[in-house]
């Protein structure tokens, strides 16, 4: 309908291996629909780095800390941080609002996610996850605008990243050396996971998908360097609110030696415990 948002969602890109059947690959959507699972694809089955040829680097076993964007509704994070900050593991300012954060995209996992309101979230309801649009539709969710009624589910993605440690701040989650020097000193990087849906998905998809598809298709997503930073998004049509979004700017290809180092580092499973996690 006229006046409704008709932004075209970029076509999906396949950058990860299929989820093995033993980990729920064939049943993931049905399980989510049946039990309201909070399944996150990248965490449940691991992700794979794309490379030329038929094989991919298996990253199963990697449990990255989470990178969060602080919104006005992020009550727990607003006690220590400001809206627009990027926060690692709920405890460390990886990038302040508007500050450039060098990042390398290791992989992207796309899926469909049920939309829940803030009140529903506060009541303990968590969104169901589906492999694709058809699965969401088959579960009885509305996946397109119907007159003035918006969809119940939409595209989402998990992005696995290497992010560079800020010079003026210390955090034990960094420590990966990928061979990039700064003033003769090696830089430190951390592996992390970030999720996007709704407006955040569209912005990140528009910023990255064409570059990944046409420039990095043969060399792999991890062969490029990006700058991530936050900014206020466009006003919402109904409320006029301007949510913060993460923008990604392609800054160039990495040296082949650095790309090889990334593959070597990521060939060994890495696990990062969340605060308070036992075992």
Mean pLDDT: 77
How many DSSP E strands?
Answer: 13
Radius of gyration: 19 Å
pLDDT < 50 stretches: 1-57, 270-279
Which band does the percent of strand residues land in? 25-35%
Q: For the terminal residues, how far apart are their CA atoms?
A: 53 Å
What is the helix/strand order?
A: HHEEEEEEHEHEEEEHEEH
Tally of DSSP helical segments = 6
Oligomer: single chain
Which of globular, elongated, flat, extended, rod-shaped describes the shape? globular
Largest sheet: 6 strands, antiparallel
Structural class: alpha+beta
Structure, briefly:
The chain is α+β, with helices and mostly antiparallel strands and 279 residues long.
Task: Describe this protein with a few key phrases.
globular, 279 residues, alpha+beta, three-stranded antiparallel beta sheet, six-stranded antiparallel beta sheet, single chain
Structure description:
The chain has 279 residues and is of the alpha+beta class. The protein contains six helices and 13 strands. Strands 6, 7, 8, 11, 12 and 13 form a six-stranded antiparallel sheet that branches. A hairpin with a 7-residue loop joins strand 1 (48-49) and strand 2. The longest helix is centred in the C-terminal third of the chain and has 18 residues, at 198-215. The relative contact order is 0.19.
């Amino acid at each position: 309908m006229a006046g409704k948002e008709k932004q075209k969602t970029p076509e999906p890109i396949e950058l990860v291996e299929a989820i093995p059947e033993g980990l729920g690959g064939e049943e993931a959507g049905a399980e989510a629909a049946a039990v309201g699972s909070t399944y996150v694809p990248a965490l449940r089955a691991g992700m794979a780095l794309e490379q030329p040829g038929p094989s991919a680097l298996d990253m199963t076993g990697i449990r990255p800390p989470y990178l969060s964007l602080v919104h006005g509704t992020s009550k727990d994070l607003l006690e220590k941080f400001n809206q627009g900050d990027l926060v690692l593991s709920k405890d460390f300012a990886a990038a302040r609002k508007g500050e450039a954060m060098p990042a390398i995209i290791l992989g992207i996992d796309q899926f469909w996610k049920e939309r829940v309101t803030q009140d529903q979230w506060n009541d303990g309801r968590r969104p169901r996850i589906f492999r694709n649009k058809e699965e969401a539709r088959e579960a009885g969710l509305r996946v397109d605008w119907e007159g003035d009624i918006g969809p119940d589910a939409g595209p989402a993605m998990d992005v696995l990243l290497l992010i560079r440690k800020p010079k003026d701040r210390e955090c034990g989650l960094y420590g990966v050396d990928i061979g990039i020097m700064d003033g003769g000193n090696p830089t430190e990087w951390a592996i992390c996971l970030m999720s996007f849906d709704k407006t955040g998905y569209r912005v990140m998809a528009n910023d990255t998908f064409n570059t990944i598809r046409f420039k990095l298709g043969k060399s792999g997503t991890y062969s490029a360097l990006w700058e991530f930073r936050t900014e206020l998004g466009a006003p919402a049509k109904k409320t006029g609110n301007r949510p913060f979004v993460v923008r990604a700017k392609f800054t160039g290809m990495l040296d082949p030696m650095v790309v090889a180092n990334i593959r070597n580092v990521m060939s060994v499973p890495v696990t990062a415990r969340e605060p308070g996690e036992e075992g």
